[in-house]
Amino acid sequence: MAAGIFGFIFYIFSLIWSLIVALIGRIYCWIWFNILSVNMVKYDKRIEEHKLELFADLADFKEDTEVYPITPVVQQSRSSSRRKQQTAVDDKFTILEIGVGWGGNFRYFPEGSDIIAVEPTFPKERFAEYLAMIHSHGHGVQISKVVATDPEDLSQVETETADVVVCTKVLSNVRNVDQVLQEIRRVLKTGGRFYFMEHVFQPERSFTHYTQRLLNPLQVKFGDNCHLTRETWKNIDKAGFAEVKYKRFSAYKMPSIIRPHLMGTATK
């Protein structure tokens, strides 16, 4: 009798605890999303004119993009050594965005685009709830897949999947820029395009140059691995893209240490 009562009490406690955990998770998701939204909205407003320039030809690129064949998949039969080669054609315009955040770039994407959302900073167990929130910022695009992983490892995305890869304000934070760029090349279809915008190092000696060098260790430690001294254009130049176009510019509305910026495209 006592064991039955104890079991019932334990069941009720477990149920209440599960509800509390679920509620905390939703609250955390809401807080994280709104803090991110506020910060990124401020950033996007300051950088909006440059993003409009960066994505100006994206709609035309979608229209001009041919239908690329997906890389043939070779399957090994379990019952014999016979191999079967399968090919497929993807008729969707697929954009993979690394660091999708609150969905602030969606408004620059062509309507009807199919989005693969990669968000490395959000807890994997709460990503579905977060995704439901960013869906409200869809701007006519459709999110078909979400990947909660570090951008150095996009193994959940098949080779030659994306027509376009977008990465804004991400490469300054990643652990290994070169590895991320190789993953981007891998998931891009042949002829696909990589759009990027990042704050970078000011190589010319100036007040900003020395301030970035001085504050970089603190920024890396307390700023989510954000580097102030990365010369990202050098990484992109040597990444093996067929064509690279970029320009450095000063985002004059930003704080001086992150005012030097880089934006451009790289075609596979």
Key phrases:
268 residues; alpha/beta; 7-stranded mixed beta sheet
Concise overview:
The protein is built from six helices and nine strands.
Walk me through what this model shows.
The protein has 268 residues and is α/β, with parallel strands linked by helices. It contains six helices and nine strands; from the N terminus they run ααββββαββαβααββ. The protein has a seven-stranded mixed beta sheet. Strands 1-2 form a two-stranded antiparallel sheet. α4 links the parallel β6 and β7. The chain is globular.
SSE topology sketch:
Blueprint: H1 2-54, H2 58-64, E1 73-76, E2 83-86, E3 94-98, E4 114-118, H3 127-134, E5 142-147, E6 162-168, H4 177-187, E7 188-199, H5 207-222, H6 232-237, E8 243-250, E9 260-267
Parallel strand pairs: 3-4, 3-6, 4-5, 6-7
Antiparallel strand pairs: 1-2, 7-9, 8-9
Helix pairs in contact: 1-3
Count of strand segments: 9
Helix content: 25-40%
Strand order of the largest sheet: 5-4-3-6-7-9-8
Instruction: Give the overall average pLDDT.
Output: 79
Return the structural class. Answer: alpha/beta
Strand-residue proportion: 15-25%
| Low-pLDDT stretches | 32-38, 67-89
Q: What is the chains' assembly state?
A: single chain
Indicate the radius of gyration in whole angstroms: 22 Å
SSE string, helix = H, strand = E? HHEEEEHEEHEHHEE
Supply the number of helical segments.
Answer: 6
Net shape: globular
Q: What's the end-to-end separation, in Å? A: 71 Å
Largest sheet: 7 strands, mixed
